[in-house]
Structure formats: structure tokens, C-alpha cells
User: Which sequence fits this backbone?
């Protein structure tokens, strides 16, 4: 059985890349890697294209991360998705953007491209004329008295657009198929040729609720590529922001999940706590969501005394009030009746799809990018990664509850040990193209950023992979056999990003 | 002269329920908002919403039939008549001979029948889902309601509401187990019929979980205003029904003078407010149940009502 390092060593190593190894491999080695994925020994962290190449980020059994690439002659390469389904949508997206043709891909429908762009394959060397508008053929389900329920892309509430096609037998969902791509913003296209500061802003706008995590992932990738040594204070400040973002989002989610069961009381109280987090973030860093506060080389703003005390009193308030809310959640039988055993995601699927965040951890996948591969300052902090096996809505709520508690402790630890010093280092451009990569734990799960910086310090190619890529397909599986009316609460418990996925 | 006065009182009652209905909804919403630490919209917001809807243009689906267009008026008329028949501040009014419990159940049943038909008329999937769920709920709520009517009729000796109210206000009614059961069953039916939490969520934006809202998703403008007003009226109807049958204190009786009528009106408003607060507190404290739990909930109401009726057959004093 080959290890990932063996495969990479056998290939042609990419130049100037950090921190993980990257090599262009032969088709045989590529197929070997796909076999490992299909056998369930390795996990797929990402798959993305370039006009003449396709790249795949992998995590092997020893939790080693590496990237292998394959030259695509005539845009063709052997499909990963035909053996390892988690790659399907990634390959369809790469096909839409770059015109790559995965050989043997079982699903050749367009994914991000809805025929509205005016061109097809916009990131290919030679963008083509738009393909004629073809109707999207949803997968079928056959049987007596099945009926279809189309939902979206425009919904009754103020949420992001996505289309859900249910095939139901009465109230029971037989099949759910998602169609996404309605909020494609062309971020990867805009990144190409952008200077670092503009690219950092673009990265921070990939998914609004994870702006800190995206900025951090992008900054870490740039710093890895250019070999920038970030001042210690900046590293700790960034972790502080990341934990505040996690707190705000988890608190919001816990309330919103309960609200989907019409239990508005939790929603109101969690909403108050979330608002407190946002206000403390505003007081400490000058922006409620802390957008553009993390830049390559460090942080954009320092934390002063007033900010520190705002965060300290925030932690005290949440510590005092949150346990009562958890008790309320746990003691409300009518609410438990909705969340327990609803939308069960089995452990095997979570492992196959390498589901990150609460989705994976509620279904037994013990993975947290803060631990594996780990990054500063988390190696110096103590925290638990909660893992449950049940995989239902209730488990996903409990993972969030536990993570809120862990984040509170992390915030306290960081405030107690925040080193002094500068908060920003110069980012010197290199003379040759450099490659960098980073894996950062956002509140949804691990965000992967891979980029190549060209000679003038401009981004040549940047790929941002949202954790939702591997969570959306699992929602389709989790809802099967549940009733149609339980979809909203399942969907909320996954809370996948539309924007981060559609890019 | 007396007849004119009686007619005026009856007319006042009909107008009262119509004018009070949006206020009651506004009040429930306000109390719920305060319980959730929100300011909440103003009490008269439902009136403003109705006026706004009346002014708006009606958007009709291309394949909407005449049924879709006339249903809002049918629903409104049936619900208004039913709501106006229930004694609010006074019993034994001019038209009280028509105020029969079975008539009220039938009027509401026909309103629901048309609403379910209209929900399916345009052919959208949500309308179909809503209509099928509504009919599932109705198929259990209506028998439960009829059994409640039976046990009340067995106790009071009539299905005519003024008589029932008069009997319930008299000392001879005593403490009866069967009436307690009927009262609980009636509250459960009222919650289901009015599409309140835990059966349905009137404030949701989630299309897939809706019952009542799903049926009326395609309505707009004055059609929607009519249906909304009918929904408001239905809440007034059930609250009035519960208070006139089980809390008949202060109710003015046939031939009462203006003073008794005024007292009745004050008592009625107090009862409405108390029941509205109880409803808001209850809705805040429970989560919505799964759609397939609703039959259990209404089954319990049905069984309670049945048990109450059976107890009366066993012993007249229970």
C-alpha cells in the first residue's frame, strides 16, 4: 500500500511550494491515488483545475497532507468522481470553469454554469462561446404515486438562493437533489492577476459569515508561499478573531435550528448573545464581522485595553447565560422530539466525504484543522474537539454547544497569554512564482486555500475550497426517509454556505 | 322599539367581532414579542396590513379558475357568520336561535373545504401539500369537535349556544369531569383549527413546513386580505366559544338592559385578553411538532371528548 509521500516523491516536484509537498505525477500514480480514495483509506481535501492541469489535495492515513497534479493533454484526465463520488461536483465545477473533460465522469451536467455567463469555460486559455441553454435534467425516481416538489431558488425567507428538488411519496422524501451555483461571483477569475491586498479582500468576501476564516486561510497561504514570518502577537490576535467568529456563528445557529422547530424563545436568547459577540468584536477590532482585519503578514488592527475588557465581559456574560439556554434546549421535550433522530447522517458517509466541522464531528469524524495539521497558536492552547456518533440534528446542535464552550475557554486563554509586539510584517514579493497552501478551521469546517503568486507579486491562480463542498451532498443523504416538513430543520443543522460553494 | 334595540345589539355584536379580530391577533403577536424580549409591531399593525393588502393589485395565476377567485369571499363570509353567531358579550340576541354549535362546525367545515380546493386549484406543489395536511388535520379535528358538542348537548340539553351558555352560568351545572375533558379537548381543537404552534406556525417563512400558509401562498391583494381577516375571525370565534361555554361569567342574558350589556362587554374583553396571553405563553413555551405527531395530538383531543361523552352516558352527574 503506497503512502502519499511515496507517490509525491515519484512525481516531478513543484518548485517553491510550501508548506505541504506537491508534485506533478504520472497518470498511473494519479489512478493509484484515486484507488486509495475509493477504498476509503485517504480523504479528498480538494480538487481544482487550471487550464492545462488538475490538482488534488489529499489526506492520507497517517494524516499527511499533499497535493498531486496531473497534466491534462487536450483538457482530458481520468475522472476521480467515477470511483470516488465526493469529487463529482468539484469535477463538474472545474469542467465549467476551465473546460476540463474528466474521462468517465458519470454526471456531465453543468454545475456552476447555468448558461447565464455569456461565455463558457471563462477561466480556460480560450473561453468558448456560450453553450446553448440546455434544460437541467434532474435525477429521476420511479415508483407509484411519487411526486416532485421544486423548492427555490427564491425562498420565502431572506436566505441565499439554491434549488431543491424533492421527490416524495406523500410526506416521505425519496430523493432530494440540490442545484447550486446561483450566487457564482467569479471569485477565482477575479483573483487571477489581482495584487495581494485586493486578493485578500476578495478572499474575505467569499462567504460573509466566515470572513475571518477565509481571510486567515488566504493570509496563511500567502505567508507560506512567500516565507513571511508573522509576528507572534498577530498570530494570537487572528486566533482570537477566529474564535469570536466561531462563537457568533454557533450561537446564531443554535438559535436558528430551534427557530425552525418554531421554538422562538431559544432563537431570541441566542440572538441576543450573538449580537453581544458582534458588538464586542466591533469594540475590539472596529468591525462587527471583523472583515478585512486579517491581512497577509499579520493583522490590520491591534487590540487595545477597551477591546480586551469588552471581550472579557462578553465571555463572562456568555458563561453566565449560555448554560441556562442549553438547559432549556435539553429540557424542552417538544423540541427534543424534533431534533433527536431527525436527519441522521451515518458515520460511513461522513468519513467517505471527509465532512468537516460539526457535520463530520456529529457523525464520528474526529477531524479539526486546528489539530491536524494544526497551526499556531493552537499548538500552545488546550482545547477539546467534541465528537459524537449519532449524526442527527440533536448531535449537530450538541457539537455546536460544546464548541461554544471550547471557544470561550480559548478566548480566555488567548487573552491571558497575548504576547506584546508588532502586529504586521512586511510581505516581500519573490522573483519567481511561489505556491502556498493553507487549511484553516472555520466554523463550518476546514477551509482550503491553494494559490500561486507570480513574479510581480500578483496572484496567478487561487483556489478557495469551502467546507460545504463536502457537506451539501451529505444533506441529500441525511434527508432521505425523513418527512418533507423536517427538511428545513435538517438544512439548518447543516447550515452549508451557498456563497462559499458557488464562489 | 325593543326589536330595533335587539337588532342594533345583534348588529353591534357582528361588527364587534369583525373589528376586534385584527386587534386580538395584534395583541397575541405583541405579547409573544414581549416574551421574546422584542418590542414587537404595534397593536394596530394587522389593521394596517389589511388596508395595505386591500389597496394592492391582485396577482392571479394564469390557470386560476373561478373557484380560486370566489373562495376568499366564501371563506370570509362563512367565518364571519360563524363568528358572529357565538355569544360574545350577550347571549340570547335576536338571531341566537341560529347560533347552534353544529351550524358553526358546519360553516367552518365548508370554509375549510373551499380553502383546500382553492389551495389545489393553481396546481403548485405547496398548495397541494398544504391542502393535504389541512385535510388530514381536519379529519381528526372535526370529529373531536362534534364529540365536544355532543357532551355539551348532553349536559345542557341543547346545542344552541345561548342555552348552553345560560346553563353553564347557572349553579346547577356543578363540577363535572366530562366538562373538564371537553374543555381541554376544545382548547386542543382550537389550537389545531387556528393553525397555531405546536400544530402549525403562523409566523414561519419555511414553505415546506407550512399547513395553512401553504394553501394561501398564491393569494395576493384583496383576496389575501379576505383570507387573513377570516383567519383572524376564526381565532376570535374559538376564543369566544371557549369563554362563552366554559367561562360564562358576566355574559348578559336575553332582554338585558344597556348596563348589563356594558358589563358583558367589559367581561368579554377581559376574557379575550387573558386567553390571548395564555395562548402567547403556551406558544412561546413549546416547539412545533412533527406533521405526523399532529394526529396523536388531535387523537388525544378526540379521545378526551369521547370519554367525556361516554361518562355522561354512564352517569348524568359526572
Assistant:
Amino acid at each position: 500500500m503506497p503512502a502519499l509521500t511515496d507517490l509525491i516523491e515519484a512525481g516531478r516536484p513543484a518548485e517553491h511550494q510550501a508548506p505541504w509537498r506537491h508534485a506533478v505525477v504520472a497518470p498511473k500514480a494519479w489512478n493509484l491515488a484515486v484507488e486509495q480514495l475509493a477504498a476509503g483509506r485517504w480523504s479528498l481535501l480538494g480538487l481544482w483545475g487550471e487550464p492545462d492541469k488538475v490538482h488534488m489535495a489529499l489526506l492520507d492515513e497517517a494524516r499527511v497532507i499533499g497535493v498531486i497534479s496531473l497534466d491534462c493533454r487536450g483538457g482530458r484526465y481520468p475522472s476521480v468522481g467515477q470511483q470516488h463520488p465526493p469529487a463529482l461536483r468539484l469535477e463538474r465545477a472545474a469542467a465549467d470553469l476551465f473546460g476540463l473533460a474528466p474521462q468517465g465522469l458519470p454526471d456531465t451536467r453543468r454545475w456552476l454554469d447555468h448558461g447565464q455567463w455569456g461565455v463558457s469555460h471563462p477561466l480556460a486559455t480560450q473561453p468558448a462561446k456560450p453553450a446553448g441553454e440546455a434544460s437541467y435534467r434532474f435525477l429521476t425516481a420511479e415508483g407509484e404515486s411519487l411526486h416532485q416538489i421544486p423548492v427555490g431558488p427564491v425562498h420565502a425567507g431572506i436566505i441565499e438562493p439554491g434549488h431543491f428538488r424533492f421527490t416524495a411519496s406523500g410526506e416521505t422524501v425519496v430523493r432530494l437533489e440540490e442545484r447550486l451555483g446561483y450566487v457564482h461571483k467569479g471569485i477565482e477569475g477575479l483573483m487571477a492577476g489581482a495584487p495581494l491586498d485586493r486578493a485578500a479582500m476578495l478572499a474575505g468576501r467569499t462567504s460573509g459569515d466566515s470572513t475571518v476564516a477565509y481571510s486567515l486561510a488566504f493570509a496563511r497561504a500567502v505567508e507560506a508561499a512567500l516565507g513571511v514570518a508573522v509576528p507572534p502577537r498577530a498570530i494570537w490576535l487572528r486566533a482570537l478573531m477566529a474564535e469570536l467568529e466561531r462563537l457568533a456563528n454557533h450561537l446564531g445557529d443554535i438559535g436558528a435550528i430551534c427557530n425552525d422547530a418554531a421554538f422562538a424563545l431559544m432563537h431570541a436568547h441566542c440572538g441576543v448573545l450573538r449580537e453581544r459577540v458582534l458588538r464586542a468584536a466591533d469594540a475590539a477590532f472596529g468591525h462587527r464581522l471583523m472583515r478585512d482585519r486579517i491581512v497577509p503578514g499579520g493583522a490590520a488592527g491591534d487590540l487595545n485595553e477597551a477591546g480586551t475588557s469588552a471581550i472579557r465581559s462578553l465571555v463572562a456574560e456568555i458563561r453566565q447565560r449560555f448554560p441556562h439556554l442549553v438547559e432549556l434546549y435539553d429540557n424542552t421535550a417538544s423540541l427534543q422530539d424534533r431534533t433527536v433522530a431527525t436527519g441522521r447522517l451515518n458515520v460511513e458517509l461522513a468519513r467517505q466525504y471527509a465532512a468537516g466541522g460539526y457535520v463530520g464531528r456529529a457523525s464520528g469524524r474526529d477531524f479539526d484543522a486546528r489539530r491536524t495539521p494544526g497551526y499556531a497558536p493552537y499548538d500552545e492552547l488546550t482545547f477539546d474537539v467534541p465528537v459524537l456518533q449519532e449524526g442527527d440534528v440533536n448531535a449537530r446542535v450538541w457539537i455546536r454547544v460544546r464548541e461554544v464552550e471550547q471557544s470561550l475557554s480559548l478566548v480566555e486563554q488567548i487573552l491571558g497569554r497575548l504576547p506584546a509586539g508588532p502586529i504586521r510584517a512586511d510581505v516581500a514579493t519573490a522573483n519567481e512564482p511561489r505556491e502556498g497552501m493553507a487549511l484553516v478551521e472555520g466554523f463550518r469546517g476546514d477551509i482550503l486555500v491553494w494559490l500561486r503568486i507570480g513574479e510581480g507579486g500578483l496572484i496567478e491562480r487561487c483556489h478557495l475550497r469551502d467546507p460545504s463542498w463536502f457537506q451539501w451532498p451529505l444533506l441529500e443523504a441525511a434527508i432521505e426517509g425523513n418527512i418533507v416538513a423536517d427538511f428545513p430543520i435538517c438544512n439548518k443543522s447543516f447550515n452549508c454556505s451557498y456563497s462559499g460553494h458557488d464562489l | 322599539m325593543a326589536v330595533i334595540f335587539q337588532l342594533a345589539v345583534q348588529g353591534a355584536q357582528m361588527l364587534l367581532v369583525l373589528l376586534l379580530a385584527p386587534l386580538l391577533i395584534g395583541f397575541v403577536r405583541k405579547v409573544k414579542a414581549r416574551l421574546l424580549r422584542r418590542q414587537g409591531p404595534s397593536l394596530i399593525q394587522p389593521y394596517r396590513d389589511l388596508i395595505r393588502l386591500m389597496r394592492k393589485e391582485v396577482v392571479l395565476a394564469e390557470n386560476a379558475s373561478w373557484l380560486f377567485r370566489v373562495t376568499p369571499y366564501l371563506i370570509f363570509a362563512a367565518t364571519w357568520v360563524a363568528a358572529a353567531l357565538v355569544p360574545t358579550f350577550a347571549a340570547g340576541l335576536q338571531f341566537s336561535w341560529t347560533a347552534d354549535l353544529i351550524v358553526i362546525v358546519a360553516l367552518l367545515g365548508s370554509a375549510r373545504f373551499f380553502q383546500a380546493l382553492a389551495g389545489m386549484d393553481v396546481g403548485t406543489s405547496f398548495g397541494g401539500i398544504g391542502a393535504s395536511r389541512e385535510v388530514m388535520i381536519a379529519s381528526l379535528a372535526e370529529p373531536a369537535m362534534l364529540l365536544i358538542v355532543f357532551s355539551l348537548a348532553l349536559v345542557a340539553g341543547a346545542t344552541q349556544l345561548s342555552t348552553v351558555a345560560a346553563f353553564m352560568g347557572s349553579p346547577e351545572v356543578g363540577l363535572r369531569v366530562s366538562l373538564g375533558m371537553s374543555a381541554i379537548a376544545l382548547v386542543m381543537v382550537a389550537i389545531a383549527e387556528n393553525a397555531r404552534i405546536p400544530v402549525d406556525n403562523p409566523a414561519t417563512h419555511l414553505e415546506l413546513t407550512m399547513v395553512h400558509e401553504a394553501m394561501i401562498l398564491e393569494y395576493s391583494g384583496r383576496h389575501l386580505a379576505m383570507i387573513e381577516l377570516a383567519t383572524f375571525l376564526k381565532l376570535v370565534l374559538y376564543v369566544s366559544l371557549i369563554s362563552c361555554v366554559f367561562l360564562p361569567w358576566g355574559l348578559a342574558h336575553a332582554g338585558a338592559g344597556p348596563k348589563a350589556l356594558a358589563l358583558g362587554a367589559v367581561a368579554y374583553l377581559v376574557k379575550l385578553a387573558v386567553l390571548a396571553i395564555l395562548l402567547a405563553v403556551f406558544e412561546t413555551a413549546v416547539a412545533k411538532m412533527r406533521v405526523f405527531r399532529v394526529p396523536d395530538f388531535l387523537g388525544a383531543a378526540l379521545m378526551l371528548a369521547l370519554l367525556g361523552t361516554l361518562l355522561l352516558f354512564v352517569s348524568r352527574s359526572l
Q: What stands out?
A: Residues 2-35 of chain B form the longest helix (34 residues). The CA atoms of residues 197 and 285 of chain B lie 10 Å apart. The two ends of chain B are 44 Å apart (CA to CA).
